[in-house]
Amino acid sequence: MSAKEPSITRIRREVREGSFQIATTVIFCLCMASFVVILAVFINDHVKKFMVSEEFYYPHLNIIAPLHPWSPSSHFHCNSSPSSSLSSMLPSNLSVTHSTLMDWISPKDLWHSMTDEELLWRASMVPCIVEYPYNRKPKVAFMFLTRGRLPLAPLWEKFFKCHEGLFSIYLHTSPEFTYEPPQSSVFYKRRIPSQPVHWGRVTMIDAERRLLANALLDFSNERFVLLSETCIPLFNFTTIYTYLMNSNHSFLSSFDDPRRIGRGRYNKRMWPTITLSNWRKGSQWFEVSRRLAVEIVSDVTYYPVFQEHCLPPCYMDEHYLPTLVNKRCPELTSNTSITWTDWSQGGSHPKRFVRRDVSVTFLNRVRFGFNCTYNGVMSSICFLFARKFDPSTLEPLLKIFPTQFGDSHRCSVMINPNH
């Protein structure tokens, strides 16, 4: 009996010691688990902050042009993910941490390394806050689609003179064209990164969308006019600016043409995305509001269909935009063009005007010889621009412009965008 007692005592002691070790191990494991949980929460919190910070998306990079507050009725979302190659969009002279609002709302340098895909994505952004946090002065974007030099540039210089801050200029030229006008010129460093353009091909629409997208990067651009090197203004800057800013509609012609050169160009392979009843025709030379410009650059539904199935004798520059507007937002346009062209001679190209054609009588006939509707009221001013004018017309136009077109040669004229 006495021999067994030490054994029982020893067993009890071992049990107590084992229980203590187990308890110690359990407590240690619980402490380690708590530490791991706390550490995980700490790391997760900081990783989230890092992931959503600008430094994560734009490490040591710079911001290009602004986001754009335009119509609140636009269907676009304000949340977008950065492009995987966004770094190629960003200029090297604007630090994220030192940028100001003015650095965002108007790019100082038009040249960039964005692809068309990146550019259109960037230009299609719409922020959720519509109110402008600065004193915004709306501008007209004049977009020139040209092969090279502008032979009528001196006329346009007179037109723009003294109206700085109310317009922007964008030049889409042949890629090999590298001439830069003098620094004093309004066309100085206004070329955008361009691609080859061929008449009647999809590259023409690509160039137009490229111009619109670059112009949309400037917050202040409110109206967008497509012009060629043969275009001239028919009125002074004040008249054209006021006409466009006060218009309730864009000026992009879109009509149903039952002829062979209209409906006859429709390709049945476009169905069901585009039906014959959707098919429209119109002038290539347009003027659009900011909201409609965004609709054009953001289209990924109809453009691919046209790209694949609208081939000569179907010409995208005559059908794509008219059909797109008819499908998406027909209420935004007046279905007319404000660029006058003389098609009276027939054929694939309009009449070209030379030196002997230019006179005050001729210009006034174009300026006031038509009737149209402007904001629901009859008007005799239907065209603001005209084409096609040969370089030989420059001299007589320069002589006529100061006396017939009013304020463009005076710097005392002030424009109130609200009137």
UniProtKB/TrEMBL annotation:
The keyword Ribonucleoprotein does not apply. Its main location: membrane. Keywords: Glycoprotein, Glycosyltransferase, Membrane, Transferase, Transmembrane, Transmembrane helix. It is found in: Membrane. One of its GO terms (cellular component) is membrane. The chain crosses the membrane at residues 20-43. One of its GO terms (molecular function) is glycosyltransferase activity. It holds the Pfam family Branch. It comes from the Eukaryota. It is a single-pass type II membrane protein. InterPro entries: BC10-like (IPR044174), Glyco_trans_14 (IPR003406). This is Glycosyl transferase, family 14. It comes from Ilex paraguariensis (yerba mate). The lineage of its organism: Eukaryota, Viridiplantae, Streptophyta, Embryophyta, Tracheophyta.
